Amino acid sequence: MSILETLDLEDLSPSRLWTHLDDATREEAVRSAYNDGTQGSKVEADMAIANALRFRPNAVRQLPLERRVAYMLKNVYADDNLASTMLLALHLDRRVALLGTFLDELGIPQSGGLIDDDYDLETPGAEALERAAAAAYEKFDDAEVDLYLAALLALDPGTWGALREVIAGRAAG
């Protein structure tokens, strides 16, 4: 069953999307956060563990990666901020080619899956998003594309709101 079939698209948030992910995908996202070259995701994850377990942040930083990943998955509630960070880390670490394909098909200038800072993003229509999604589905695993589309909608419904139609059509068909 596709993740798209289980989501309430009208009430989708990053934390709700996070709760619908399978364990392997959540683990992949947490590992991606710890691969973050900017350290921001890693610091946020460590702070979440520290708060959940009532540890000092320094003690968490000294834990081996495997223990931190396990704590994140079993002991930490991912609110919208943390879930957003994990979803972004996953896509920017492990799924950059997917992001690039989707954004390129929309004609949106990007580098490494990130929209160029100086680009004034306009809200894409459903038809353009359908074409971009089709291009992504041709090249990548359906489950990864499903999650990416849902993540876009959850992270920025104002810009990507027309994805509701694309996702609903995909889930129904």
Outline the structure in words.
The chain is mainly alpha-helical. It has one domain (3-172). It is built from eleven helices and two strands. The mean pLDDT is 94.
In a nutshell, what does this entry contain?
By secondary structure, the protein is mainly α.
* Rg, Cα atoms, Å: 17 Å
Give the oligomeric state of the chains in this entry, treating copies of one chain as homo and distinct chains as hetero: single chain
Question: Total strand count, please?
Answer: 2
User: Are there runs of 5+ residues with pLDDT below 50, and where?
Assistant: none
Report mean pLDDT, rounded to a whole number. 94
Please report which band the strand proportion falls in: under 5%, 5-15%, 15-25%, 25-35%, 35-45% or over 45%: under 5%
Classification by helices and strands: mainly alpha
Give the biggest beta sheet: 2 strands, antiparallel
What is the domain total for the residues? Answer: 1
Cα end-to-end separation? 12 Å
Order of SSEs: HHHHHHHEEHHHH
Which overall shape is indicated by the principal axes computed on the Cα atoms?
Answer: globular
* Contiguous helical run count: 11
- Biggest sheet strand order reads 1-2
The helical percent reads 55-70%
Break the fold down into its secondary structure elements and pairings:
Elements: H1 14-20, H2 23-34, H3 40-53, H4 57-61, H5 65-75, H6 80-94, H7 96-105, E1 110-111, E2 114-115, H8 126-139, H9 142-155, H10 157-160, H11 163-172
Antiparallel strand pairs: 1-2
Helix pairs in contact: 1-6, 2-5, 2-6, 3-5, 3-6, 6-7, 7-8
